[in-house]
């Protein structure tokens, strides 16, 4: 018997949360759909109810509230550049956004979707028949990590390009669910577990991404990928220097969660880079080899720090 398919399109956050709780075991939120729908068609998401939140106006606002910039989760990556305050205060975020996917996809892909995009692995993000032929991995109910041969942990990689920049800027996010609204550090939602990479409640909606305006930052963003368009990252780095002298190194594409190293511009810069390399659990689950990605990570971080020191 074929399960009934449902497509729901709420007009408010409250209505979306209600729908989510009505279909709590068999639904997925969708907005731009550039990540969710691909995973659904590949059989990596087996759900029968889609809740389309793209028609909720309050999720599309970009506004200043006192010393904070609120970016609505449904703000498309392409439309970020229309806001002068982002270009003036957070140019690295625009650079990162323009490095995501392709121009056409950026017109529908949202910043919230990119922050919450699913971890990827070259052995998992394939068609269903391919995965069945090679053998199911831990991320799709198998009993082994094909990339490492281990049976305890999945190392699917964190691939958001905007999140490393946002974390380097000290971003927070506003989450809403049936229990109300709460604000948490963006960095805190990533678990490091490749199977369940985020600890955001299934029925919660990401409402805003919040950036501080009372601190000034300089950020250097770098990305490694086979082609200059479409491809997900093989390595992303964002290194920030704040006006109070704090240095933050953030690395994506090399671990199930963003690798974050905090320090000071007056500290031991070589030691910070060594810590980032040591903390990154890079495995061979990408187009590029593990060794090459680690070599490029060291190079990216060194170059970024040197650029900030100029």
The share of residues in helices is: 25-40%
CATH class: Alpha Beta
Shape: globular
Q: Tell me what the CATH architecture is.
A: 2-Layer Sandwich
Number of domains: 1
Stated plainly, the CATH topology is called: Uridine Diphospho-n-acetylenolpyruvylglucosamine Reductase, domain 3
Number of helices: 10
First-last Cα distance: 65 Å
SSE blueprint:
Elements: E1 6-8, H1 13-22, E2 27-30, H2 36-41, E3 49-52, E4 62-65, E5 68-72, H3 84-89, H4 91-98, H5 103-106, H6 111-115, H7 128-134, H8 162-168, E6 172-177, E7 180-185, E8 205-212, E9 217-224, E10 235-242, E11 246-252, E12 259-264, H9 269-279, H10 290-309
Parallel strand pairs: 1-3, 2-3
Antiparallel strand pairs: 4-5, 5-8, 6-7, 6-8, 9-10, 10-11, 11-12
Please provide a written account of the structure.
By secondary structure, the chain is an alpha+beta fold. It has a single domain (6-120, 155-309), classed as Uridine Diphospho-n-acetylenolpyruvylglucosamine Reductase, domain 3, CATH 3.30.465.10. Helix content is 27%, strand content 22%. It is built from ten helices and twelve strands. The strands form three sheets. It has a five-stranded antiparallel sheet with strand order 4-5-8-6-7. Strands 9-10-11-12 form a four-stranded antiparallel sheet, sandwiched between helices. α9 (269-279) packs antiparallel against α10. The longest helix is centred in the last third of the chain and has 20 residues, at 290-309.
């Amino acid at each position: 018997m074929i399960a009934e398919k449902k497509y729901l399109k709420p007009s408010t956050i409250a209505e979306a949360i209600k729908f989510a709780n009505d279909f709590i075991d068999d639904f997925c939120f969708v907005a731009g759909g550039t990540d969710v729908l691909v995973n659904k068609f590949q059989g990596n998401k087996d759900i029968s109810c889609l809740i389309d939140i793209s028609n909720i106006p309050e999720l599309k606002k970009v506004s200043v509230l006192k010393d904070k910039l609120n970016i609505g989760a449904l703000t498309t990556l392409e439309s970020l550049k229309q806001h002068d305050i982002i270009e003036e205060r957070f140019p690295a975020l625009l650079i990162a956004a323009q490095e995501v996917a392709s121009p056409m996809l950026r017109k529908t892909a949202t910043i919230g979707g990119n922050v919450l995009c699913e971890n990827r692995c070259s052995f998992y993000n394939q068609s269903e028949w391919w995965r069945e032929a090679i053998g199911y991995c831990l991320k799709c109910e198998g009993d082994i990590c094909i990339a490492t041969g281990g049976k305890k942990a999945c190392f699917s990689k964190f691939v958001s390009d905007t999140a490393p920049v946002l974390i380097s800027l000290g971003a927070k996010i506003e989450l809403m669910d049936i229990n109300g609204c709460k604000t948490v550090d963006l960095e805190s939602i990533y678990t490091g577990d490749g199977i369940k990479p985020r600890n955001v409640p299934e029925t919660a909606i990401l409402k805003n991404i919040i950036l501080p305006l009372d601190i000034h930052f300089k950020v250097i963003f770098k990305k490694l990928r086979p082609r200059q368009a479409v491809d997900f990252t093989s390595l992303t780095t964002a290194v920030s220097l704040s006006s109070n002298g704090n240095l933050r190194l953030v690395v994506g594409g090399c671990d199930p969660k963003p690798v974050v190293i905090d320090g000071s511009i007056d500290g031991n810069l070589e030691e910070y880079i060594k810590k980032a390399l040591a903390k990154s659990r890079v495995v061979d689950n990408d187009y590029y080899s593990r060794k090459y990605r680690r070599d490029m990570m060291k190079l990216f971080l060194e170059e970024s720090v040197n650029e900030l020191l100029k």
